[in-house]
Amino acid sequence: MKKLINDPRAVVEESVEGFGMAHADLVDVHTDPIFIVRKGAPVAGKVALVSGGGSGHEPLHAGFVGHGMLDAAVPGAVFTSPTPDQIIPATTAVDSGAGVVHIVKNYTGDVLNFETAAEMAQAEGVSVRSVLVNDDVAVEDSLYTAGRRGVGGTVLVEKIAGAAAERGDSLDAVAGVAEGVVRNVRTMGVALSGCIVPHAGVPSFELAEDEIEIGIGIHGEPGRHKIPMEDADGITSRLLDPVLEDLEIKSGEQVLLFVNGMGGTPLSELYIVYRRAAQILGERGVKVERSLVGNYVTSLEMQGCSISVLRLDDELTALWDAPVHTPALRWGM
Amino acid sequence: MKKLINDPRAVVEESVEGFGMAHADLVDVHTDPIFIVRKGAPVAGKVALVSGGGSGHEPLHAGFVGHGMLDAAVPGAVFTSPTPDQIIPATTAVDSGAGVVHIVKNYTGDVLNFETAAEMAQAEGVSVRSVLVNDDVAVEDSLYTAGRRGVGGTVLVEKIAGAAAERGDSLDAVAGVAEGVVRNVRTMGVALSGCIVPHAGVPSFELAEDEIEIGIGIHGEPGRHKIPMEDADGITSRLLDPVLEDLEIKSGEQVLLFVNGMGGTPLSELYIVYRRAAQILGERGVKVERSLVGNYVTSLEMQGCSISVLRLDDELTALWDAPVHTPALRWGM
Predict the structure, then answer these.
(1) 8-state DSSP, B206
(2) Residue B101 has pLDDT above 90, yes or no
(3) Is residue A293 within 8 angstroms of chain B, CB to CB?
(4) Cα(A174)–Cα(A157) distance, rounded to whole angstroms?
(5) With contact defined as beta carbons under 8 Å apart, do A256 and A240 qualify?
(6) Other CB atoms closer than 10 Å to residue B171's CB: what's the count?
(7) What is the mean pLDDT of residues B71-91?
């Protein structure tokens, strides 16, 4: 195992410290317990968004803290849920009195810990609404989940709900927007290689030299099936077809197409996947109105990608286009 | 070898096609020969910037085509210089009559081909100035170079010279700004693993399980020396110390600190390197005024990073801060 780290047990702490130094204009980093808040939070009168989860998926979530997106991010240990004693102070720190929306990826640990934190924060007088992201069509239940996992679509939920909060929507309205995105986004991923959790030091799973895993989760947990290696066009169909079927996309509809790298795949390859995905959508009469290509929800150095499709309407498109200024996503300002 | 590709010989073509589809609002893609131009180019009265080089370093260069940065990018085959028959039409396509600056990374093939193209374009009535980027302090001459190689600092040259062109500077002035950046930026990189050129199918070089290469180039060509694996703080010193020494940075000066991923290294690890680099600069009394962390000048899926330091003055800082809108770098608009 070769990693650019020091003590494997200090990876999250040191990485977050560096993140805070690089983006001191945008965020404040709290270290005991660890959480990251938007500079100047709480923003008077604004509903706050808090998300979090295991580390190892960077830039998710800390990279999305800032204007028009998250007010706080709570990183757990690598691939491990953050604890309520982190989530509670993050929640109270960013509440302006207008309430807080928790955006929770559907993993058993995350769900439990955010639930506990929401109850405790509410006991302290903070109104909390929780929105569960479960966009992965690959499996119904998984190693770490009852129900579908929350994966790449999370970044779209955070961007669009963040824009709703920024324009002044109420707590119920922001939660409603987030739930609307969840209803209209689906994702499926593929792994070409495993990844190595720093303190474990061994690959979380193994793939043979000619084997890939279709429907992989973002922790290297099993997907639908292992198959022999195929070309990019074939793999793209295997990911996109179930997404479109599940979303029941029809000719004439408009979508956002998001090709997300898992961390170790060159950008050039993501564009080869994007090319075929856009062609398939075109053949079906679906209009790609917006796109996003890059490494946004990763699994350490895993090679592979996921494809997300979000059904757009004028409202979601306008919120997607709204200005955002975070370390990892920025436009309009 | 597992890659998300189809025909290994069609990698650049298909990737650029997907890139053009994803960013149709920003760029136009020409396919025969291949080059990418800014939407709406030539921009009346504006000096144009053209860069290019071997593919495999994405988002460099095509990802930096757009407002405030490049007017055209010319991708060669993977790790292979583009040819004059690509560079010439790219140059003439974006010339408004105000002239064109070629930004050329110092590799023998790139230098020769851009030189030939500049002569041919000039014969067609285009005023061309060439600026050579040679920021790599690791080696004096290399496998592919007479003199120092052009590496990570290239993105800083393109951003800052692009801002000068956008504000209306003359051809000589834009070239002068670019040369000023080159004089004030230095870079050094490390590889933890090799990378695989698609049509070759085998690693370009091998590193043992406990071995890293200090001073690596962006094509996997040899650096200063192979050493046993060290921790991130130790590696950071090995990269940053020669950079600061060569740049003769003094206490009280202001810099931009750029930690660049080679493609296969998680963002969390880049921030661990950033942390130590910023600490070292702080200990020396150097003020980190601006920062950039991420995968901007890559070597396919290579694991590793480079550290660049750019000495800032008010002029360079203002040009760095100026609005930019490209697929891979965007702010202020």
Answers:
(1) -
(2) yes
(3) yes
(4) 11
(5) no
(6) 17
(7) 98
Check pLDDT > 80 for residue B144. Answer: no
Q: Which residues of B touch A31 (CB under 8 A)?
A: none
Q: Give the minimum alpha-carbon distance from A271 to chain B in angstroms, rounded to a whole number.
A: 5
In chain A (333 residues long), the average pLDDT of successive 10-residue segments reads 94 98 98 98 98 98 98 97 98 98 97 98 98 94 83 98 98 98 98 92 86 92 90 98 97 98 97 98 98 98 97 98 98 96
Quote the pLDDT of residue B69. 98
Nearest CA in chain A to B258: A22
Subunit contact B23:A291, Cβ cutoff 8 A: yes
Confidence of residue B222 (pLDDT cuts 50, 70, 90): confident
Three-state DSSP state, A247:
helix
Which pLDDT belongs to residue B155?
98
Backbone phi, psi, residue A79, to 5°: 60, 30
**CA–CA separation, B306 vs B308, rounded Å?**
7
Is pLDDT of B332 > 90?
yes
Q: B264 vs A269: CB contact, 8 Å cut-off?
A: no
**Average pLDDT of the segment spanning B320-326:** 98
Q: Is A202 on the interface with B (CB under 8 A)?
A: no
Helix A11-22 vs helix B267-283: crossing angle, to nearest 10: 60
The residue annotated as part of the active site, out of A57, A61, A67, A102, is A57
Say which amino acid occupies A91.
T
Answer whether A329's CB lies under 8 Å from B292's CB.
no
Nearest to A21 by CA among A72, A58, A62: A62
B57 as an active site residue: the answer is yes
Looking at per-residue pLDDT, the higher value among B209 and A162 belongs to A162
For each of the domains in chain A, give its residue range(s) and CATH number, in order of start.
8-184 (3.40.50.10440), 186-324 (3.30.1180.20)
Chain A residue closest in CA terms to B2: A192
Is any Cβ of chain A less than 8 angstroms from the Cβ of B308? no
Query: Which whole-number Å values give the CA distances from B204 to B120, B193, B201, B220, in the listed order?
Result: 34, 10, 9, 6
Tokens 């020091």 belong to residue: A6
Q: Tell which residue, B287, B302, B321, B92, has the closest CA to residue B192.
A: B302
- In this complex, which of B2, B14, B291 lies closest to A193 when CB atoms are compared? B2
Mean pLDDT over the full length of chain B = 96
**Residue in the structure block whose two tokens are 């100026």:** B322
Q: Is B56 on the interface with A (CB under 8 A)?
A: yes
Paired tokens of A90: 């993050």
- Indicate the DSSP class of residue B291: E
Q: Decide if pLDDT at B269 tops 80.
A: yes
Q: Provide the shortest C-alpha distance from residue A115 to chain B (in Å).
A: 27
Alpha carbon distance A104, A110 (integer Å): 7
Q: Measured between beta carbons, which residues in chain B are less than 8 angstroms from residue A295? A: 267, 295
Residues of A whose CB is below 8 A from B332: 333
How large is the ipTM? 0.98
Residue B187 has pLDDT above 90, yes or no: yes
Establish if A272 touches chain B: CB-CB under 8 angstroms.
yes
Q: Is B325 a catalytic residue?
A: no
- Provide the pLDDT for residue B199: 87
Minimal CA separation from A221 to chain B, in Å: 19
